[in-house]
Amino acid sequence: MDVKLLFILTLLGILCCGRAQQEGNECIKANALSCGECIQVGAKCGWCTDTEFLKQGEPTSARCDELESLKKRGCAVPKIENPRGSQKILKNKNVTNRKKGAEKLKPEDITQIQPQKLTLSLRSGEPQTINLKFKRAEDYPIDLYYLMDLSYSMKDDLENVKNLGTSLMLEMSKITSDFRIGFGSFVEKTVMPYISTTPAKLLNPCTGDQNCTSPFSYKNVLKLTSNGQQFNTLVGQQQISGNLDSPEGGFDAIMQVAVCGEHIGWRNVTRLLVFSTDAGFHFAGDGKLGGIVLPNDGKCHLKDNMYTMSHYYDYPSIAHLVQKLSENNIQTIFAVTEEFQPVYKELKNLIPKSAVGTLSANSSNVINLIIDAYNSLSSEVILENSKLPEGVTITYQSHCKNGVINVGENGRKCSNISIGDEVSFSINITAQGCPKQGKSETIKIKPLGFTEEVEIKLSFICECECHQHGIKNSELCHNGNGTFECGACRCNRGRIGRQCECRRDEVSSEDLDMNCRKDNGTDICSNNGECVCGKCECKKRDNPEERYSGKYCECDNFNCDRSNNKLCGGHGRCECRVCICDANYTGSACDCSLDTRTCLATNKQICNGRGICECGVCRCTDPKFQGPTCEICPTCPGVCTEHKECVQCRAFGTGEKKDTCDEECNFFNLTKVKDRDKLPQPVQAFPLMHCKERDANDCWFYYTYAVNNNTEKEVHVVETLECPAGPDIIPIVAGVVAGIVLIGLALLLIWKLLMIIHDRREFAKFEKEKMNAKWDTGENPIYKSAVTTVVNPKYEGK
């Protein structure tokens, strides 16, 4: 099972390596025929312009390769075309460090994002990184437009909103000294099914004695102003209206507020739209109920501050509203009653930079709602970009407060930003190929809800610099059949070949194929290439380091002998299946070193004069010696004595070197065994010496010393010492032992005698009781015979 698992893992490793190698070789696989095509493949690709670079049989596309591979193949760095992208900042005004109460600035003089304008030159596959800085400015101007539902159900709400102007101006003065407020109202489209069942109801759509104004779609009551009292006065003059169905036409009103900037009075500052209602909304498609089928055109249709095309255009879709709100940098606050909170929260998820607040039944909490929603919206910055050209991608990484880093879609935003906080964004922009045929494009990046933006002009590197110096109809390209540029011919239409020497219709003729067969054989280009214009163009390998070459593609640089799993031992290069060794190396796989320095002993002799240096390794001619320079003789006299002290200190912690054992005796591997039978025995693989040494206490210890085939010194030692007994103790021990033996024998005899006497007494007692015994011969009353007699009743004794 382990073998199978190992085989599977090895196979997977080979496949993974092969796939990674193949995927990483995009330059060769592209078969680029010009420098421009080559650099569009990827950022790792370069083009060699050296006219002598290609070997026989290599196609023009072989000039396109990875940069390191081109260098290894002999292309000088100045001859490699490898243009790189760049960036240039054109406008870089610092973000505004403004405090409330300081000198008042115009909105256009306040900067919250930096830089503001730059250009990028993009090379295919090479990302360009730009760093943007955003700082939420203090005392930043705010425009707020209050859009209110004036259907009958909002009657009590209107009473509270009449004093909203001055109250809201007072509260907002705590946030900014430059605040303006406007007011608009809406009810429903002015077509019959929505507002009334009869024309008479158009004048007063309310029931009973209620006095209501005529229904309308949207009315711009008050343009944005800094006069809060004027807001109160005009709002106080408004009257409610009515309609039939519950959903209102608020989307029509939102669209007009977004696109009618001149009528509303929007400035290039923070723009807030408060949408107040106690009902749902109509959206695109609902206009069919009133016979309206034309989709909303997203344009301004205000005349005398009234929306005049409600009967002509359908309601806008949610996506259409999102687009227009984003284009005009408007942040929306939905102030709705508790009943419709779920609906508008779902709408909020579709509209970036929007918030939802719960409006009380009579709108008494509207000021707190607006303040809370504004703080929520302004504490988050979200970057968005305009539409990207085809082939261009963009990624974001945000660096927010407290060291928080976000990537992916979250890399576009930072949250919990307070006034005066500064955050940054790293933005990578990458092009693939040559978008728009090299024409420049402009994209814009801006924070949602803000009018400021970053303008980025993109230009694309589609050709090499050497392309500008190309020679059209050059004689180098077969009588002017191509343009000679970047060291190669770019053939005219209908021509083919390295020098454009053939027409396309001649490529596969039999006569030309004959020139591609070696020795008149049957294989075209040795089955390693294609015959183009009578010349072999060798096919490419997935590995960029491996190539076919030769007039008939009969050569390659990857089928030479190997050593240590390396081509030519790593000490040469493979040319036409033969290793060309580096200096000081020889052999079919360049695995034999001619350098004798590795064979020099400390006495400056080669192999200590006891061997021959072959391929940088000593071959000892005296069988008694071994080691890198034939310096070790395990079986020579004196070896045991030489290593005695070190073996003693490491095995038993005794001897003269016990205090310096770690420093002086770490040159061998020590293994302890239990007894002498476990010591290694001599083998033919490497010599081994058996040693017996005595310590200062006349104790013997046994060990073996050897040098293995890896020139490692090995010592095996018996773990217990063999110590003789002392001379004075022997008689004493012998006497004690003899005394113990005699005492034991005496005790044994005494015990035996006592047992004999006891047994005789017991036997005599038994005999006496036997003689005196009188046995009763009475019959046992419960005894029953085991024999049963059965008489046959028919038996008559005959």
From TrEMBL:
- SMART domains for the chain: INB, Integrin_b_cyt, Integrin_B_tail
The GO cellular component terms are:
cell surface; focal adhesion; integrin complex; lamellipodium; melanosome; ruffle membrane; synapse
Describe the location of the Integrin beta subunit cytoplasmic domain by residue ranges. Answer: 752-798
The membrane topology of this protein is: Single-pass type I membrane protein
Q: Which cysteines are joined by disulfide bonds?
A: 27-464, 35-45, 38-75, 48-64, 206-212, 260-300, 400-414, 434-691, 462-466, 477-489, 486-525, 491-500, 502-516, 531-536, 533-568, 538-553, 555-560, 574-579, 576-607, 581-590, 592-599, 613-618, 615-661, 620-630, 633-636, 640-649, 646-723, 665-699
Transmembrane helix: present as a keyword of the record? yes
Q: Which GO terms describe its biological process?
A: cell adhesion mediated by integrin; cell migration; cell-cell adhesion; integrin-mediated signaling pathway; muscle organ development
What GO molecular function annotations does the UniProt record carry, in alphabetical order? Answer: C-X3-C chemokine binding; collagen binding involved in cell-matrix adhesion; fibronectin binding; integrin binding; laminin binding; metal ion binding; protein kinase binding
Q: Which residues form the Integrin beta subunit tail domain?
A: 640-728
Q: Which residues cross the membrane?
A: 729-751
Compartment(s) of residence: Cell membrane; Cell projection, Invadopodium membrane; Cell projection, Lamellipodium; Cell projection, Ruffle membrane
Keywords, sorted A to Z: Calcium, Cell adhesion, Cell junction, Cell membrane, Cell projection, Disulfide bond, EGF-like domain, Glycoprotein, Integrin, Magnesium, Membrane, Metal-binding, Myogenesis, Phosphoprotein, Receptor, Repeat, Signal, Transmembrane, Transmembrane helix
Q: Which InterPro entries match?
A: EGF_extracell, EGF_integrin_1, EGF_integrin_2, Integrin_beta_N, Integrin_bsu, Integrin_bsu_cyt_dom, Integrin_bsu_tail, Integrin_bsu_tail_dom_sf
Any one Pfam family here would be EGF_2
Record's signal peptide: 1-20
Q: Taxonomically, which superkingdom?
A: Eukaryota
Q: Where do the Integrin beta subunit VWA domain residues begin and end?
A: 34-464
Which PANTHER family does this chain map to? INTEGRIN BETA SUBUNIT, INTEGRIN BETA-1
**Which family, according to UniProt?**
Belongs to the integrin beta chain family.
What is the name attached to this protein's record?
A: Integrin beta
- Protein encoded by which gene: LOC115806437
